Amino acid sequence: MLSRVAASLFWMARNMERAESNARVLESRLINALESSEYGKLATDDWEAVLEICSSVTEYRSMYDACEARPIAQYITFDARNINSIVNCLENARHNARSVRDNIPEELWELLNEQYLTLRDEEFYAWSIRDIQAFLQQTKRLSFMIQGVIESSMLREEPYHFIKVGKWIERAEKTARVLNVVCEKTTQLKEETQTDHYYYWLSALQFLNGYDAYLKRFPPTMEPKHVLPFLVSYEQFPRSIEYCMDHVREAVMQLEGGKVSHYSEELFQALDHVTDEFVKMKFQQMDSADIGPFLDRFQNDCNRLASVFASTYYFV
Fold first, then answer.
1. TM segments (predicted)?
2. Which helix (H) or strand (E) holds 271?
3. Quick one: 302 and 273 in the same domain?
4. Above 90 in pLDDT, residue 55?
5. Do residues 109 and 210 both lie within one domain?
6. Which of 124, 139, 154 is the last residue before a domain boundary?
7. I want to staple 205 with a disulfide (CB 3.0 to 4.6 A). Which of 116, 188, 211, 316 is the partner?
8. Domain count, the chain
9. 42 Cβ partners below 8 Å, 6+ apart?
10. Alpha-carbon Rg for the chain in angstroms
């Protein structure tokens, strides 16, 4: 397979996963804002967390004055200056798909192209918060449909596995970023209350679509000793970091025919470096402050892994 085809498949998957993840985070935050009477000042004022998860606080503040729901929703959803805005991610995914149409199901291309044509003439700045919420739901549904097409239609050959690597690396990195932000917020609480901690850990589960799954495994209490291992190392939850990295390794093994060759040796070493730490860590015994350094290292290692993967298959 040509390296440019592999790169386009990899980035199509990353862009689509990023669009869905950012849509989920923003939608959850908007819903929590409506329930501010239950969670108090945290739910109305803590919008910086969303920016840290989905984009850049520094970049946002250089463009907007107010750190409020409306401008933040605009920035994350459709601001063309934000490279990680949902609309930009969808357009990039469509651009990636267009260049590899011979390697993906026609239905996948049609879904992305139809969304692009729908958005092309939109007057985004006229959208109300309700319009934005409807678009966020639509983005999640689009992602679900695309994943359904991939799983039900694609041959388990190289294009499929490049898509899988992109998807799972992006998802693992997003889970780590969500946890990093939430852990930082909980350690900064000056007057700790049970309600404050409950709000932040509930938000982490909602941002990662894990609340319902968590309740099936743990009692309805939001404690780090339960939430952290669930989101980091619970092997049955498809957004836990360990689950994602296991699937990255599986896809790479498929690409390499189950063998480590001389040109893929560095890639497998990078994978081992990322995953070996899971064996050493005792997440059930850790609190927010303890896990912060691990999450920082993981995000750096994840970026390096993506870079090594790209160089291994000549993306760059």
1. none
2. helix 265-280
3. yes
4. yes
5. no
6. 154
7. 211
8. 2
9. 196, 199, 200
10. 20
- Token pair in block for residue 225: 């000793």
Q: Are 173 and 302 in contact (CB under 8 A)?
A: yes
pLDDT (average), residues 269-283? 82
Quick check: 82 and 137 in contact, CB under 8 A?
A: no
Q: Among residues 154, 178, 203, which one ends one of the domains?
A: 154
Specify the residue for token string 């409306």. 70
pLDDT in tens, 143-194: 999 999 999 999 999 999 999 999 999 999 999 999 999 999 888 876 656 6
Taking phi first (over 0 means left), then psi (-120 to 50 degrees means alpha), and beta for anything else, what does residue 237 get? beta
Amino acid at 240: S
**Model pLDDT, residue 192:** 59
Mean per-residue pLDDT of the chain = 91
- Are 55 and 203 found together in one domain? no
Structural domain span for residue 62: 1-154
Same domain, 135 and 220: no
> Residue 36 in 3-state DSSP?
helix
Query: Same domain for 169 and 39?
Result: no
